[in-house]
Recover the amino acids of this structure.
């Protein structure tokens, strides 16, 4: 990652710049560093942001599980963080990542944004690269409901 987290003595300074929502979260747009494609949108709390900066791998706050979620902890599809960016209002973060395994979505697709609006309906445009049952086991999440992250 191009800029590592500062030591703990000064960490309050860089974290303090962010405008956290009422739940103590900030939205995170995760983008493939090579192609620029948006892979997912998730949430981070302060601990997730610190862990992401420290590890150099994406760690999010899972709203559905109410716990930290190290991306790839179950699937192996880790996101190596090359760059962390903060927007002009300091209320959203962008992660530029190298997506291990080429799959970011729990549905087995490259991106969570695999549906496009065409003629008033959502059309699935991206192929499933790997069956979620093969990634997560037979009790995998329904790809159309998915976890709320």
């Amino acid at each position: 990652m191009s800029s590592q987290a500062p030591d703990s003595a000064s960490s309050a300074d860089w974290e303090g710049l962010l405008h956290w929502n009422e739940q103590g979260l900030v939205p995170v747009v995760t983008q493939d560093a090579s192609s620029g494609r948006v892979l997912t949108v998730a949430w981070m709390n302060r601990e997730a942001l610190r862990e992401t900066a420290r590890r150099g791998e994406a760690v999010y706050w899972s709203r559905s599980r109410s716990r930290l979620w190290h991306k790839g902890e179950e699937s192996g599809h880790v996101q190596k963080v090359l760059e962390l960016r903060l927007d002009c209002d300091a209320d959203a973060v962008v992660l530029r990542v190298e997506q291990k395994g080429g799959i970011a979505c729990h549905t087995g697709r490259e991106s969570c944004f695999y549906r496009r609006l065409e003629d008033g309906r959502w059309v699935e445009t991206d192929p499933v690269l790997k069956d979620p049952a093969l990634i997560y086991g037979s009790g995998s999440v329904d790809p159309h409901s998915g976890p709320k992250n």
Observations:
- Residues 11-136 form a domain with the Ubiquitin-like (UB roll) fold (CATH 3.10.20.810).
